[in-house]
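so my prof wants the structure for this chain in the tokens format not the other one, which i didnt know existed until like an hour ago. anyway here's the sequence
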Amino acid sequence: MQALIPIYFLALHLAGDAQLKRYWLDQINLAAQGAHRFLQEQWGQIKQLAEKYAKAPKVFVLGTGPNLGTAEEASLKIIEMAKMYSECQELEDFFHGRLREVDQNSPLFFIAPQGHASHRVLDFLTVTDMIQAPSIMLTDSVILGIQRLATHVINIPVSLDEFATPLLYVLPMHIFGYEMALQRGYDPTARRYNIVPQKVRYRAEE
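here's what i got, hopefully its the right format
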């Protein structure tokens, strides 16, 4: 979030529109409030997911629109911290291609705030539910279809303008990468090639 906010500020400065600036400052503040609530109330939910999928061979992260970049960042952090295979892809592209590769062992994260992604994702969940592939929804719009079809739902605590959602939706994915590293016995801050072939424990063994 900290890395993204200066870019938003730069865009607002270049726009030179006072009303627009107030709107987006409110969105940034709302995202910060949502991040605080998430850290206080939902970290444990992400930790439980990491415990459940620590032995997964790979993790897929899917997003679209402004959250395609969020999905890419999430996937990179899973690779970097948990030292495992992860891949991100645009939602629609994945549906027409790589979806055929999913199985019952590798979770799929869907970054789907209210809007186009949250409506389209129901088509995906129909397939993942049918083949029993674990699906994890990040959304602020938990409609009945999502409740019924998704394996796990991470209910993002605030609703934002879609173009502001990357500020908040990247947070649970960073936490997941961190917790996956701990579950897999890796130091989340260690360089990948400095620890092969032996794992490095994050906490010193007593």
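also thought this was worth mentioning. Strands lie at 58-63, 85-90, 108-111, 135-139, 152-155.
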